[in-house]
Every structure is written in C-alpha cells, then in structure tokens.
Amino acid sequence: MNSAIAGFSSWDLQVPIAKAIEANGWTEPTEIQREAIPLARQGLNVVGQARTGSGKTGAFGIPILEKCTPRGEPQAIVLCPTRELAVQVAEEMDLLQGDKGLSIQTVYGGTDLEKQAKRLNQGADIVVGTPGRVIDMTKRGHLSLEGISLFCLDEADRMLDMGFFPDVLWIFEQTTNREQTLLFSATFPQEVLDAADEFMSDAIHVMSEDMEVEIPEIDQYAIKIGRANKLWALGRIICRMNEGDQMLVFANTKRMVDILSERLGKFRIKAIGLHGDLAQNKREKIIGSFKEGRESIVIATDVAARGLDVDGITHVVNYDLPDDTESYVHRIGRTGRMGRKGEAWSFVTREDEPQIAKISSTWNMAIPVVDAPPLPEGVERDPIGKREDWDEVSDNFGMVKIRLSIGKSDSTKWAIADWITNQARIPDIVIGEISQSDDETEVEIHVEKVAYVIGVIKAREFNGRSLSPIIVEA
Fold it and tell me: Which residues of 201-228 are buried (b: 16+ CB within 10 A; e: fewer)?
C-alpha cells in the first residue's frame, strides 16, 4: 500500500470519511493535519498555526465530522471571518464526510435570512457561519447553541482585525455544554494569544512547521525615502501604470489605509481602502470589483488582503514595510501571477533599513535600492508634489549637514559658527559638528531650525561673500 495513504489509514478513521479522503485523492496528511488531527480526535483543546492552503480545514474538519452524528441538531459550530471562507469550509467538510449523512449548513450575512433560517429549521448537525449572522439566528430562535459540544474558530487573527471578537465571545458563552474548543490562526499577535487563553486554559499548541513560502520571481525595488514623501513616490509609480494594470498597496494599520485612500482621493487618484472595520457586504463588493478589473488600486492591511487572489495584479507597493519577514513574501507574491510581469516596490525610511536588510538576508533576495521612478514620457508634472522633508536628510541625532562655499583659508569654523548664531539668533546647541577643507565648510544644524537657518544664510553675506548653502545627504 502507498505509504502516503497509510498515513491516513493508520488512524482508523470512520469508514465514510476514510473513503472520501481516498476518493478525493488526498495522499498524505499535511503538517498541520499530522499534528492536530490525532490530538483533536482525543477530544483535546487545540490551538493550531496554519495558513489558508495548508490543509487546516481537514485538520479541524475531520475530527468534527467524526464527533457528530446525523440527528438534525447542531452539535458543532465553525466560525469564519468571511462569507467566502464559510462557504469554502462547508463545501470541503461536505466533501470529507462522504456518505455519512451529516447536514452541514452555512449562515452568513448579505443574503436571504429566511432561506437560511428555513434550512436550519429543517435540521443541521454542523453549522459553519460568520459571527454576526450566527448571533442573529440565535436571537431569532432559529439556531440553538445549547447542544453544541465542539466550538471551532477559524482564522482567529483575521477575526480580530475585522473587529469580530466581542461577537465571537458572545457565541462562545452561549455554548454552555461545550466539551472541546479548536482555534486556528495564521499569525499569533498578542491579542489572539490572549483570546485563546480566554477560550481555553488547557489547550495544546500546534505550531506547524509547514509554513514554507515560495519566493516569487518578480522585479523588486526599494526606495529610500522619508515619511513625508512616500505619497509623492506612490504617485510616481501610479502614473507609470498602463491601462488594465492593477495595484495592491499595503499599509500596516486600518487607520493608514483610510488616510491613504483619502489623500489619494484629494489628488484625484481613485483608490479603495480594504480593512476589517468595513461592513461585510462592502468588503465583498470591493473584492468583487477588484477581481473583475473595475477597480485598479486597492489599499489594504495584511489580514484584510488574505484570500484576495487576483491574477491581474501587476504592482504591489509596501507603503509600510511589514513587521515580519514572511509577510513581505506573501505580499509581493500577489503580483507576477499566471506568467505575467509583476513588480514590487517598498518604501524604506531610515528606521526601516535594518528590516529591509533582514528581509533580504532571510530569503536570500536582492532588493536593489533605487530612486523613485522618473515621470513617464509626455508627463511633465508629478501627480503628487514632493515636499521638503528635513527628517529624510537628518542623521540619527536629528542633525542636518549643510555645505558652505567657504573654507579654512578664508575663515575659522568658530567665526562661521558665531556668525550663524548671531545672524539667525539661535542658541549654540542648534549647531553641531563643524568640519573644514581649504575651500569648503560643513556645518550640522538641528532639523527643527535647519530650514530657517538656510533661509538666513542665503539672504545674508559673510564678509562680503555669499555662502551658497547646499544640503549634504545623510
């Protein structure tokens, strides 16, 4: 017998499920299935780390299917963050049960409540749904949670990002006869760990090593830039897009998603924000429009973009660099699909330099540091103007170096420092290190006063000569 099939057969699964697994062509369990299924079958509480596509539905679905019997009363509930995922989970579980005869019903918003209620009233053994609609059905008396013995939470991190945790907690508290809890998440921010502790105190954590990632072959670039000019650089990339191109811009917070879409709108650039605070039907509408090519620019957080598989994405922009190296690979992997050309741009502030270096070394990738791309031929004006950003040229101590066209053959550095403090009426502490060559002097000025000091130097003469101040890049 094939050793792969033996992996499943050695568990002595219920006959209908074992047959369905074989019929579906599943060869051997994935990492998360190998780790989680035996524990869950014993009735233990399990916290598992697994991404979409890692076989996690099977990891929780098989134990749930085995535990339930066809009697038309809800015995298990699986909560999912989105309608699409709920449908996908229910379909896969239905496939996995073979001819066991369980009634698996989905309940989610954005569709006819009465039809879903009718199906529930006809009998359901397993309910897969989104939190809002599950609560609605429970309060209306169409769904009883009292008989639920197994509670499963899928994509917990996404639930958190979408603001569903109060609803999840409410549902959890209604399952008073619960015997087992399963929680799965791709990432484990502290809030998810805290929630796991709240839901179960004795869970076994399964951190799957099956988190290998494929490095996409696309053009990658890093633009070293200050915060004030990220929008200008984004405008440059946008104005070089061709008709039919699509861009996915990543920001690290929901607030930044809103700010970006609003600011781009002020420059007459249409960009749609996508994050967890949006209503479910609005999220679905945005995703649908993007997939069908009716929207060309979407700005999203990592969690909101999960499952946003659009083959037409040509550009990915990391407006904010991600906090972990793996997220970077998942982000850029959304472009260059189906043999198409793709490019990924990352904005790197001074604070981000260690992170981009870490990303490069972790995945052995060359990410060249380049200037923002030039304006395309025939375009003479930036869609978004560049701003004066002194932070961009200051060092770690907040000092900006300016070069003056006068050297030690003409004056001492002390005389120049005194002249600057007197003319600009600034305290000595504003001036940092001063160095001189025969015909040039470099003076450090604190970032808070540098614009003013440069203005004063340009307007005055030192011993009858102009000093022509020039910024020296940090």
Answer: eebeebebebeeeeebebebbbbbbbee
Q: Percent of the chain scored above 90 by pLDDT?
A: 53
Q: Residue 21 in contact with residue 13, Cβ under 8 Å?
A: yes
Query: Do 389 and 232 form a contact (C-beta atoms < 8 A)?
Result: no
Phi-psi region at 101: left, alpha or beta (left = phi > 0; alpha = psi -120 to 50): left
pLDDT tens, residue by residue, 329-384: 888 888 876 566 789 999 999 889 889 998 888 787 889 999 999 999 989 899 99
Structure confidence at residue 117 (pLDDT)? 93
pLDDT band at 388 (very low <50, low <70, confident <90, very high): confident
- When pLDDT is cut at 50, 70 and 90, the band that residue 173 belongs to is very high
Can you read off the two tokens belonging to residue 4? 């792969």
Domains in the chain, ordered, with CATH?
3-207 (3.40.50.300), 219-370 (3.40.50.300), 390-472 (3.30.70.330)
Hey, CA dihedral for 397, 403, 407, 413, is it positive or negative?
A: negative
Q: Given this model, what pLDDT does residue 6 score?
A: 44
Q: Which residues contact 57 (CB under 8 A, 6 or more apart)?
A: 88, 89, 92, 93, 154
Dist. CA 332–CA 200, nearest whole Å: 36
Query: What are residue 42's phi and psi, to 5 degrees?
Result: -80, -5
Question: What integer pLDDT is reported at residue 105 of this predicted model?
Answer: 95
What 3-state DSSP class applies to 79?
Answer: strand
Where do runs of H (alpha helix) occur along 42-100?
A: 56-67, 83-96
Under 8 Å between Cβ of 17 and 29:
no
Per the confidence metrics, is the pTM higher than 0.90?
no
For residues 184 and 179, what is the distance between their CA atoms, to the nearest angstrom?
17
